[in-house]
């Protein structure tokens, strides 16, 4: 929190009031992950699962090439997300939720 205040003050000194306000307003949201158990921090901080899913969808849409309309692209993406949710990959635990009871 103190470091964020220093950064905001430095931004104010550089006449970047909007950026300083953004730092001050966003610090609480930025540090939300520290409320979780320390073992979860790395997985909360990174978005590897989302990136992997996006790569999979991108790969599928490139195979098709062009879509006649946005609805058909949405149907392809939805079908892929449904497959992932139903498969072993979608049922794997990313975080150990039993630690949240602590």
From TrEMBL:
An annotated Gene Ontology molecular function: transposase activity
Domain of life (superkingdom): Bacteria
GO terms of biological process kind: DNA transposition
Keywords: DNA recombination, DNA-binding, Transposable element, Transposition
Matches recorded under PANTHER family: TRANSPOSASE FOR INSERTION SEQUENCE ELEMENT IS1081 (PTHR33217:SF7)
Membership in a protein family: Belongs to the transposase mutator family.
Function summary: Required for the transposition of the insertion element.
Protein name (Swiss-Prot/TrEMBL): Mutator family transposase
The species this protein was found in: Adlercreutzia caecimuris B7
């Amino acid at each position: 929190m103190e470091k964020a205040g220093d950064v905001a003050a430095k931004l104010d000194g550089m006449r970047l009031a909007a950026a300083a306000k953004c730092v001050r307003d966003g610090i609480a949201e930025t540090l939300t992950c520290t409320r979780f158990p320390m073992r979860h921090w790395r997985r909360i901080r990174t978005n590897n699962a989302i990136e992997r899913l996006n790569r999979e969808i991108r790969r599928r849409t490139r195979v098709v090439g062009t879509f006649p309309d946005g609805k058909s692209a949405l149907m392809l993406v939805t079908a892929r997300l449904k497959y992932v949710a139903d498969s072993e990959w979608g049922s794997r635990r990313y975080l150990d939720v039993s630690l949240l009871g602590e």
